[in-house]
Amino acid sequence: MIRNLIDNVAKGEWSPHQPIQQSVYIDSEPQIRMTPFDKYVSQCCQKEQVDPLSVYHLMQRKIYGDMADRANRSKIFRSNIHQLLCDWEGNCEITDMFEDPLQTPFDYQSYQSDKQRVDSLKKQIHEHEGLMNEMSSQKLKEGLVNTREGCVDCMDRMKNHQDKLATDMDSYEPNYADTWGNLAMKDDSFYRHTVKDNSDPRYQEFAKRQIDRVIPPNIQKVFMNASLLPILMKKENRKLSREIAELYGSIHEDVKKIDYLLDKLPETTEESKKSLLSQLLSGIGLGDDSEETAESPPISSTDVANTVQDIMDKTDDSDDEDDDSGDEDDDSGDEDDSGDEDDDSGQEGGGGTFELSFF
Question: Using one digit for the tens of pLDDT, what is the confidence trace for 186-207?
Fold first, then answer.
């Protein structure tokens, strides 16, 4: 369907300024439906999953290629076109007229891939919102940060797509557009009369057959199509630009939403981790003071292990201390006596050894 559409436009049988006749059946009765050209192109593109802007550009390239082929095959056609071209543009080459100004067209497939990625990122944001009260804050934060990075990258890519469309807007017109428009207004005889008249009937008949073989009967419509296609291409360009601008704004709102969610996340448990670390340092003789830490002797792995075990045993020992409190009160007198003995033993040993006695 797309190939047939391109061929008919390149031959001048169909034109953007004329509706397309379609045979349809209504209540089992055949009828003719007149469909506007651009609407018909959109219908064909939807069926074959292509974009209209690319189809219009393919029509242009087909026209340029066919015109260059006609100029190579017909000396009469080439001479007439070249004469008119030089009258309008001055010293120029006819081959320049049929070159495609749009060498690197808009990559619609790349845009579609980025558009699908935007949809995927939006789904991720929705999932993160649903897990705000279920997932750990650290894991949720990592997911939100990754999604935000993806959104920022998509915003940059959308900006590149918009810049490309803006650049292509000036390349839709054919080279020497005024000459194309002038040729579209010429009568069909302009393309067929010979440069030098020849009275020989055989020559005239031969020339006519050669011209009819190369030049279609509605050649002026082909030039008109080349002049009208840029209007439709600019229309699709603006349509895509608006769509991309809306996507860019939507992604920007998603980034602000992610920033809001990140601000609402609870703080991580760093304070509790620091508290446990402080206990470990205090147990092995290291405080928060940097000077004390610097002057303290090296700590062995055994000291660290013992300190950790002491902290873990504190809870278990608390219950035993409550049970022994009564016994300690009964033996308070004995403990006083033992204190005297401890003092004596400390003096005798020079303060180096302490012994406890309960008898």
Answer: 887 787 766 455 566 777 777 7
Q: In a 3-state reduction of DSSP, which class is residue 176?
A: coil
Average pLDDT over residues 207-222: 82
Cα-atom radius of gyration of the chain, to the nearest Å? Answer: 44
User: Which of 57-71, 82-96, 284-298 bottoms out in mean pLDDT, i.e. has the lowest?
Assistant: 284-298
Q: What residue spans define the domains of the chain?
A: 2-264, 272-329
Burial status of residue 14 (CB atoms within 10 A of its CB: 0-12, 13-18, 19 or more): buried
Interatomic CA distance for residues 314 and 181, integer angstroms: 96
Residues 6+ apart with CB under 8 A from 178: 88, 89
DSSP assignment string, 105-125: ---HHHHHHHHHHHHHHHHHH
Per-residue pLDDT tens digits for 96-154: 899 999 989 999 999 999 999 999 999 988 888 777 666 667 888 888 889 999 999 99
| Maximum CA extent, the chain | 152
Q: What is the CB neighbour count within 10 angstroms for residue 60?
A: 24
**Lowest pLDDT segment from 92-96, 131-135, 272-276:** 272-276
- Continuous segment of H or E residues that includes residue 214: helix 201-214
Q: How far is CA 110 from the centre of its chain?
A: 8
Distance CA 76, CA 203 (A): 13
Which residues does 98 contact at the CB level (< 8 Å), separation at least 6?
A: 64, 65, 67, 68, 71, 175
Residue 16 near residue 232 (C-beta atoms within 8 A): yes
**Angle 89-95-97 from CA coordinates, rounded to 5°:** 45
Q: Are 192 and 215 in contact (CB under 8 A)?
A: yes
Neighbouring-strand partners of residue 205: none
